[in-house]
Amino acid sequence: xxxxxxxxxxxxxxxxxxxxxxxxxxxxxxxxxxxxxxxxxxxxxxxxxxxxxxxxxxxxxxxxxxxxxxxxxxxxxxxxxxxxxxxxxxxxxxxxxxxxxxxxxxxxxxxxxxxxxxxxxxxxx
Length: 125
Prior knowledge:
This protein is α+β, with helices and mostly antiparallel strands. The protein has helices at residues 11-23, 42-47, 66-76, 89-106, 108-112, 119-124, and strands at 2-6, 27-31, 55-58, 61-64.
């Protein structure tokens, strides 16, 4: 059974819920009230050490980040397809990295804006 930890007003969780609905997948919703700080509780931090929603647990697999969750669901539950076929989520990652390189070549500010850091590093600063 799929379990989704989510804060209902969160747009990232909404994206995951749309993917689940479009694929016709049933899931258990575990609401996390970030206004009450539930995302900082030890049990939740075991699921996502960054303390962010959404988090999806599918049997023994735990995934956080709405885009990665959507790609996982596409790979594990391919029908109906919601993303263009590319072979696997690893190829999608390569495609995003390639697009980022192309953008940085067109706009030198895009490359210097992060000082060579990844998106995850930039979001921490």
